[in-house]
Every structure is written in structure tokens, then in C-alpha cells.
Amino acid sequence: MGKMVAAANDRLYNNGAVCGRCYAVKCAGAANGGGGNPCTGASVTVKMVDNCASSDGCTSTIDLSREAFAKIANLDAGVIKITYNPTGYVIVK
Questions:
Q1: Could you tell me the residue ranges of all domains in the chain?
Q2: Domain 5-90 carries which CATH code?
Q3: pLDDT, tens digit (0-9, with 9 covering 90-100), for 8-61
Q4: CA 17 to CA 13: how far, in whole Å?
Q5: Per the database record, which ranges form the Expansin-like EG45 domain (predicted)?
Q6: HEC per residue, the chain
């Protein structure tokens, strides 16, 4: 199954408010508008574990782990459009 985790951009991260929260993520198409549809049709639930800071060059809303990305899209796509929604679950360790 792998690590179904993700990092949130600064706005979504909200100073750590989303850490531990789960989000359902689904591929919504190619980010570049070409090359066909990279989506598998599946969705994945990921746990937010980190910040994908714009100061570090992150331009994504959510940066998925490789395992989570592979579940919803072809890895060769690299960057995809997504839809995402909080699941209401919070994982506490």
C-alpha cells in the first residue's frame, strides 16, 4: 500500500492546522493540457504530514507521495490537476 501522505501549500497548511487531517484526492486531468488523460479514475485518501512551502519553490496545492500519486495517475505525468476534500478524519499518533 505504501505511504499515503501529502504536503499542503502555505494557504492550505495554515500554520500546521491541517497536519494529521485526511483528504480524499482525485486526478482531474493533465496539468499541461496535453498528452492525453493521465488519470486512473481512482481516488486516494492521504494524511497531511508536511508543508510544501512556496519559499522552497512549491507551486502545487498538494504534493502527494509517490505511492499516492501512482494510485490516481500515471507517474509519467509528473504534475496533474486534482480535486480534493477533507474526509473528516484526523489521525493522531
A1: 5-90
A2: 2.40.40.10
A3: 999 999 999 999 999 999 999 998 766 689 999 999 999 999 999 888 888 889
A4: 6
A5: 1-84
A6: CCCCEEEECHHHHHHHCCCCEEEEEEEEEECCCCCCCCECCCEEEEEEEEECCHHHCCCCCEEECHHHHHHHECHHHCCEEEEEEEEEEECCC
